Amino acid sequence: MSGNGHRNLRRLLKAAGVVLAGTTLFFAYLWLHTQHPRFELPKTAILKGRNIAWENRVGRIDNRLDQCERALADLQVRDERIYRSVYGMESIPDTVREAGLSGADRYAWMEETRRDSRLGQVTVRLDRLMKKAYVQSLSYDEVDSLARRAGDMVTHIPAICPLDPSPSSFLMTSPFGYRSDPITGEQKLHAGMDFACPPGNPVYATGDGVVETADNESSGYGNCVVIDHGFGYKSRYAHLDEYEVTAGMAVTRGMRIGTTGRSGRVTGPHLHYEVIYKGNYVNPVLFMDVTLSPEDYQELVSQAGGGV
């Protein structure tokens, strides 16, 4: 056999060997997968192992997020029921606390399949939790700012009688509660207290605050002063003969703000006095210091300047 013949034979045998080896491997792989369905290639096994490890890590993050969400929920309840309530602050609406992340699609970088994956769900949860935590931090900043002024709260609450409590200076004719309207006879809520007295008696601010309005009210209150005390409290002084303050003026407890009269819708001269807390009428007696003697009252009025 010539040299070329030998070379061709060797090439043929090598090719046959490659084909035979490939066929053998193919049938071996097919046999393994049919007879042993759990068999995996080494590379597949490694990738699956890594995937399981990442799944476990994501699972631990998910569990930690559960703990964080529970802790944040407790903080929100405490914030609403204790801190914001004590200082007369408005509640934060659920629409603000639970609001999603607005604006452009923050998750556009994630493929749809990845967004629905456990990792994608954890990413969305983490973003929402961070947003809730941010809202809560703003609330605490607001509470902290108000708490720094909490010492003022004692003097701001409307807690004294609006008139000198000396004997025979007035007669309390109509308390807070439902009654027959003295003009129409209709059963309705009397939202304050009526102090019958001659016109011209000095009327005093019952707590520190800022005059919200001082005007003649067409609603029947007549000459009327409303003081915003902060912390959710307001007080109203109606049917005045005249008022001696203007809107925007700062007043202190015991400062004279006007005199009693019979302006507006009345049947006789008296002072109508209201306390409003967070937009709701409340019984002024619940806040009034009835232990304050006439002498102490006059001392308080004197310290407040006695008038304006």
Structural write-up:
With 308 residues, the protein is of the alpha+beta class. The chain has 2 domains: 42-148; 154-303, Glucose Permease (Domain IIA) (Distorted Sandwich). 42% of the residues lie in helices and 21% in strands. The chain has 7 helices and 12 strands. The protein has helices spanning 3-35, 42-86, 94-97, 112-115, 118-147, 153-156, 294-303, and strands at 171-174, 177-180, 187-190, 193-196, 202-204, 209-217, 222-230, 233-243, 250-251, 256-260, 270-277, 280-282. Helix 2 (42-86) packs parallel to helix 5. The longest helix has 45 residues, at 42-86. The radius of gyration is 40 Å and the shape is rod-shaped. The termini are far apart. The mean pLDDT is 80.
Break the fold down into its secondary structure elements and pairings.
Layout: H1 3-35, H2 42-86, H3 94-97, H4 112-115, H5 118-147, H6 153-156, E1 171-174, E2 177-180, E3 187-190, E4 193-196, E5 202-204, E6 209-217, E7 222-230, E8 233-243, E9 250-251, E10 256-260, E11 270-277, E12 280-282, H7 294-303
Antiparallel strand pairs: 1-4, 2-3, 4-11, 5-10, 6-7, 6-9, 7-8, 8-10, 8-11, 11-12
Key features of this structure:
single chain, 308 residues, alpha+beta
Q: What is the compact description of this entry?
A:
With 308 residues, the chain is α+β, with helices and mostly antiparallel strands. It has helices spanning 3-35, 42-86, 94-97, 112-115, 118-147, 153-156, 294-303; strands at residues 171-174, 177-180, 187-190, 193-196, 202-204, 209-217, 222-230, 233-243, 250-251, 256-260, 270-277, 280-282.
